[in-house]
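Marked as duplicate of an earlier ticket. Keeping the data here for the record.
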Amino acid sequence: MNKFKFYFIVLITTFSLFSCSNNDTLSPITPPHDYKVQFDADNADIETYLKSNYITVTNHPGFTDDQDVTISKITAGETSIWDQTTYQLKSRPVNLHGIAYTIYYLVLREGIGESPTNTDAVWASYSGSYLQSTTAETVTSVTATLFEESKIPNQFFSLSGTIKGWGEIFPQFKTGSYTSNNDGTVTYSDFGAGVLFIPSGLAYFQNGSGSIPSYAPLVFSFKLYEIQRLDSDGDGILNYLEDLNGDGYIYDYRNSVNYPTKPATNPDDTDKDGIPDFVDNDDDGDNYTTKLESKRPDLTVNNLAVSNGYYPFTGASVDDPLTPNIDERQGIPSCSSDFTDSGRVRKYLDKTCH
C-alpha cells in the first residue's frame, strides 16, 4: 500500500511538472495581418523596388540565356524599371480577400503561340526572389534575395496549384515554338517572357515557404515554353474549353473566405448551381453526367464493333478515309444531332435533351 501511494505521488508530481512546463513554453498566437494593410505595405515596397532598380535583358535567340533578366540597383543614372519604355510595365487588378489587389508585370515578349488559362499547367523556366524593406533616417530601401531558380524546366506546374499570382499573370502570355535537336535537347524560340511582382496576399502571406519569410512580396522572371491543357473534373472536356466567356480565366467562387465579393453568377457555370463547369461533372444540371453526354456510341469499322470513346470537342479538321463509318470531323453534337454548327448548344450543355 505504501509503495502504491509512493508511485501515485510520483505520477501526479510528474504530470504537474509536465503541465507547467508546457504552459510556460506556449507562445501567444499572433493573428495574421489585415489583408488591406499588408497589401498597402507590399505595394509600396514593390513600387519602391521598381523605381530604384533598372533591368537588363539578354536578347540571344536560339540560346538558353535568351530573355535572361538581371535587375540591379540604380547607381549611375540608369533608367528605372518604372520609367523605362523598352518594355511594357502593366498592372492587373485582382479581387481577393475582399480587397482590390494590383499585380505589376513586365512584358519582355508576349509569345506567338497559345495562352494558358489559369487552370492549365505550364512548362516554364523561372527565377524567384523575395523583397524586404529597411528604413534608415526616413529613407526606405528594398532588397531582393534569390530563393529559387529553374533554368531548365523538369515538370509542368498547374496554375491552379501554385501561388495565386502565377495563375493571374501567365494567361497574359503565350508559348513560342521549338526545335528538337539531334543531341536530344530542345531549342525554344519566340516564347513569352516576363517579370511579375506579387504582393504577399497573392503568394504565401503569413505562412512563408522554405526560405521565404512571411509577408514577403515576390519577384519572378519567367519564360513560358509550353502549356498542358488539363481536365480537372475528368469529364472529357478540357478546362480551357469550359471557359464559356473566353476571357482566359475560370474561377470557383464557392470559397466565400477568398471571394467575399463574388459576382452574382459565375459566367463559366452553365447551370448556375455555383459549381463552375470545369469542376462540375454535370454541367447542365440534368442529372446526366457530362461524360455520358459526350460519349460516342459503339460504331463498326469493316463490320467489327469498336468503341470510339468520346466525341472530340470540335472534331478533326480532316476525315480519315481509312474509317469509312466514322467521320472524324464530328464534334460534340447538339440534341438535334448537329455536329458542325459553331453556334450550336452541345448536348452536354442542354438539359432539354432528356
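See parent ticket for discussion. Confidence is low (pLDDT under 50) at residues 3-23.
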